[in-house]
Structure formats: structure tokens, C-alpha cells
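Let us practice reading a record.
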Amino acid sequence: MRLLAALFFSMLTIALIFILNTKWLTPIALGKFLSPQHGFWQNAESVNNNFSQDLSFSQLNGKASVYFDERLVPHVFAENDKDVYFIQGYLHAKFRLWQMDLQTRAAAGRVAEVIGEKGLDHDREFRRLGMVYAAENSLREMEKDEVTKQTCDAYTAGVNEYIKSLTESTLPLEYKLLDFSPEPWSNLKTALFLKYMAYDLSHGESDFEMTNAKSFFNKEDFDLLYPKIQDSLDPIIPKGTKYPALLKPFAIPPNVDSLYFATPISVEANKPDKDNGSNNWAVSGSKTASGFPILCNDPHLGLNLPSLWYEMQLTTPDFTSYGATFPGAPNIIIGFNNDCSWGFTNGGRDVMDYYEIQFKDDSRQEYFFDGKWLQTNFRIENIKVTGKSAYTDTVAYTIFGPVMFDKNYAGKRTTNKKNYAVRWKAHDASNELLIFYGLNRAKNYDDYQKAVVHLHNPGQNVVFACRNGDIALRTQGEWPAKWKGQGDFVMPGTDSSYMWQYMIPDSSTPYQYNPERGFVSSANQRPADSSYPYYLARNYPSPRGFIINRKLAAMQQITVEDMMTMQTDNYNVFAEMARPIFLKSIDVASLGEDEKKYFGKLAQWNLRNDINEEAATIFELLWKQFKAMVYDDEFKNAPLPIQSPFESSLLEGLLKDSAYKFIDDISTPQKETLANVTTAAFKKIIPEIILLEKGNKLAWGIFKDTRINHLTRLPELSRLHLPIGGGTNMINATKETHGPSWRMIVSMGPQLEGYAVYPGGQSGNAGSRFYDNFVNEWVAGKYYTLWMMKQEEMGDRRVKWTMNFSK
């Protein structure tokens, strides 16, 4: 009996060891994860953790020190550039390694090797988009430049030295959770990270959706739904600015409108968040209380933990720079130095076009172009899938770029079995690191000018302010010169006349330098008015740019506190324009008691989307319902995917004509009026409003329910239900999982003043008190004072820990 019992418990022990150390019954290896010696317990960081260290690395050329302040912001002092970038790489890895690893694996289409088959569709998409191909092209350009090569080599060496120091117990939590290990960093990974940002910021095409809309609507209706320019336009560069003529005339294909595809295309392409954008502005000393410029920037991106940004200072004998960095890339990205400050908003132009490819046969070995058959190139993509056999995908490459959609990529992505190649500016060789290298060291406007020309993709609106009083903004990028309408729809891939003919010269870049109005600004709106000679595509958001310009034009004696108030402003200028339509046209006499109560809330609303404003929720629901009732009948039988009408189209159409064509419901025999539709829309949302109010969820902050997700989407590692206002079309553009990812204000006076906050913390370790300790300040609209530390301040009480680096 004892022998049987011993045998039973031995087998049970073996079974438990097998189960706990494999993923047989659970998505993680529980034994390793729960191990007291090596598991997640080791990631718990003491509140009194000492970050001070003495470190020695043979790659260093001299001595260096890193002084951490009470927020764990590192102030790096090195004797030369190589060492400062080595240490930047080391610190990025020390505090954000898993984030860097995940983002570059995602960019390379290597998610399935970590999470299994559910990551395969993502990986196929990114391989077919040519992300690694794009990174390889840029890496060659980066490494041609001696300064960039040395910078990247030093940064990569620093990352890898930290990776070498890791043991099983000190691995970041997420490696233990997902049961994989870090691999060595490389300069290619830095290039991949930059391409990942390009994907996020320059992937805003709507070719398939617009092609389907063109095939479905007549020209009159199409132009009403998707106008080439908005009436409410307040462009980045003011109306009336004179621009150089076209560099050279376009060779526009004959009968271009009839040759464009007029049949539906069933292709579903993933898109980044359409609201990836930002605000930035700089006011000159003529408008400030100090008499010196103030620069502001708040990039609107996905809200994640760990944060996209990592705050730090870099100092050598040649330069000092402070601001937000990208874990994964060297230099300060948005920030300031002792002379200048700079920031970015997304350029938003269409730099990605699809072309229909005609292959000779199913082998795809040849494709038809300009009257002859050209040889296809192929890239074999071997995608590792953890727990499964590898998946091999063969991607065809043409003169345009990779064939992203073809018969081999059917299913939910495409059902029409045609072939579409993608021409994307991010595929071209470029070296964006040079803009950041130059801005970090800029001393004046000329230095700014020399730096920004290195920005090719993603194109950005680069704002600038200098201590000498200069302010400027350039809508900088390498933009394809397009004839009117080019790239709005899928184009024929058999005819070279549909290709991009040249790039807009830098001399034609819309820009402002010390304008008479005393400020420059951008909020992703259209860069220039209709007098600009190059086609700028159709759809740009207008309200944020409109309210920013209106506020700045009216302000005088501006202070930093004024800019803080403005940057976190929840005023809804879109509602200011749209609410009068509702108040005037809803038939109040037909409303019941509850309906009148909520109508009263809407009428008395202060037009602010603050957290406790119930009318902000009512307006949001009403506009959404009203828009659906206006357009759903026309779109009922439309092919999918299809472009939704621009938000500005409905508002501007109604402001011009209350009998706007699409008000009538074409599915009914009678002719509906604006009063009919607004009243019906209002009545329709009342049951939802009542339910929200009963559940104490009508207040805007609760209804919007902003959250900051951990990159794994695990709730336990996320910050949920944050009480913050703002939203789409407001300066404080905080949505559900998207918003101001770094708020920065810099006053360029004799005593440089910097203020900033971001929704996260310096550490990527969820077991650290520095993981999300900035979130509450960010939610409350508060800022930290940024300390541009001087070498002689090493004994300052603000220094809490010191890392010493030596050879």
C-alpha cells in the first residue's frame, strides 16, 4: 500500500511539474511565473529602492554620471557623444526593455512567435506592408552617415550591455508572463521602431473606401459628402499667403475620371487611429508677459502603459537637451535646449496609394506595365508561430512596392481576388534621426532650418521658438506632388502616368517665420488654403485649429499659466457651431416631460466637456444619432468598406442650407425636413439617456470612460475609469484610449522655464512606484517643473540617486 501511495504521489508530482512549467492547461508556464526565486515576485520593487550604481563598460571613452531626481528622471552627463548615447540606450533598456522589444517585434511582423496563432494576421499584414523592407532601406541610409552610424552603434551597445546583465529572476515581468526572452538589440531595430511611428502617423489613406464611394454615388452627391476643401478652414499657414508656382506641370492622364476604378472593391485594410495628431503653437514675445516666446506641444497618440515617452536630459560639452525620448531611438524627440525649443504635430497628408496590378498568370512572375511584361521580385516571409509550424508567405514586389492584397491574402481581408500594390513614402530610404540630432544642438532659426529638411516620413508640422525671439513653423516632410484628386482612389498599376511624378520642393513647403500676428500654430488641420498649387487631399480636422487660433489671436500678456489652462481646455467649439441647429429645429412642443428636461440640459449647457457635464453626453449621443438618420438611408446598399461622410460635411452643409439634400429619407414616401429628423433623433436617444442617468453614468467623464491600457491589455496592469474631460474636437483631445501623450510648455526667457507631464511613469515595471505615478497629475491637468540640471548642481537636494559610468 505504501508503495502504491508513493508511486501515486510521485506521478502526481511529475504531472504538477509538467503542468506548472508548460502551457498545457494555462496560457503561461505557471511554475516559472510563480517561482519565488525567479518568478514575478522578483519584480516587486521596494519603495526605498536604491537606483545608485557604479558601472564599468569597455565601450565607454570616458567617465559619465547619471543623476536621477525625485521623479526618476535621469540627467545624463557624459564627456562625449558616443558615451551619452551608450548611456541613453542602457537606461532605455533598464526601464523600458520589454516595451522596446514588443514594439519592434510588432513592427517586424513577429508577434505570433510570442503570442501564437492569434498574432498571425497582424504579422502577415506588416510583412505584406513591407515594414522590414522599409526599415532596411532606411538603415542603409542611416549607416551611410558617419554621425548617425556612430550614434546608433553606441545606443545599440548600451541596450545590449543591459540585456547581458539580466538573469532569469531580473527579467521584466512581461517576459515571465508571456514566457519568452529578450534578444540582442540592433540598429535595424531602431530603424524598425521609427517605421512603426511612420505606420502610426503616415498610414491615413482611404483609397478603397473612397473608390467604393465613387462607384456608388453620382458626382454631385459625392462632392457634397466628400468636398475637396472645408468651408470652416482656418489653415495652419494663414489664408492669403503667397506660394511659389508648381515646380513643373503635371502630366495628367487623359480621361482620368473615367479611367479611375468605378467598380466596388472588397478589401478591408487595418488603419491606425484616425485621430493620431497633436496640437502645437508658439507665441512671440510681443504677446507674452515676459517679452519672450512660449512654445507648447501635446502629441495625441494611443494611451498605453508603459508610456510611449521616457523623459530625460542629455548633456555633453557640446550640447544640453531635455525632453521626451522614444525608448528605442537615440536623442531627445520633443523638447528644448539652452537656446531653442521644438515640437511636432502630424502632417496628415496622404503618402500611401494603392495600385491594381495585372499579373500575367497565377504564378505572379510577371506583371503588365507601360505596354510590356516586367519581372516580379519576391520576398519570402517565414513567420514563426509559437506552438505551431512556421507560416510561409510569399510577397510579390513591383515597381510600386509590395503587393499587399492578392489571392493569397483572401478571407476577411479581401474577397474580390484582385491584386493591389502599395506605394508608401515610408518605403523610401531616409534618415530621420538627423532632424533630432540637429534640433538637440540647434542654437537659432538657421540651425532649425538645416535640421528639419531631414524629416521625410512621417511628415510633421515642426514648431520652433528661440531665446532670441524667433518663432517658426514648417509643414515639413517629403511630400509627393499630386495632381488634383490623385491618390484619392485606387489607381491603375499598368500605366506610369498614374505614378508620383516628383516630390514637392522644400522651397514650396508652407511655413511661417515671425508672423505679424504674433503666433504660429497647428492642430492637424489643412496646411494651406486653396491657393496652394499642390493637391493636399480632402479630409482634415478643422475645429481644434479653429479654436486655438481664435484664442491665441485674442490673447495678450500671455503667461505660462495661461498656456496650461489653454492646453487642458475642454471647450467644445464643434458643439458651439452645431448646437444652434438642434435648438432651433427640434420641435419642443412635441416633446414629453422627460424629453423637455433633457432638452433643457442641452440648451443650458456651457459647451464644455468637463467631467461632470451631462449635456456633453447628450450632445454626443444626439449628434451621432442625427448623423446616422441623415445618411443611413443613402448608405444602406453601399458597397463595403466605404468612406463615412466627413464630419464637417454635415455641419457645413446644414449651416449653408437647412434643406440639405441628405436630410430627406429616401426610403419613405414623404419628404422629411430638418425639424422632422432632429426631433426624431432627439426622441430616439432619450431611453439611453434615462438608463445612463439611472446608472449614474450620464456625466461626461464617466460616459467617456478614459483608460490607459497596458500593452498586453491586462486590466490589472492598466489604469481604468480616469476622471478626465475633453474629447474629439477639443484642445484637450482626450478620448477613451487616446489623447495628449506628452504635454509640454517651454518659456524661452532669460531664466528658461519648462513644464510637462505625461500619462505614465518613468519605469516600465508594474511593481515599481514609478510605473504610473504621473497619471493622477495628468488627469488633473497639472504639470511638473522640468529641471535642466547644470553640472555644478550635482550636490543639489533634488538629486536622489547617482549612477557612475566608467571605462
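A brief commentary: The mean pLDDT is 93.
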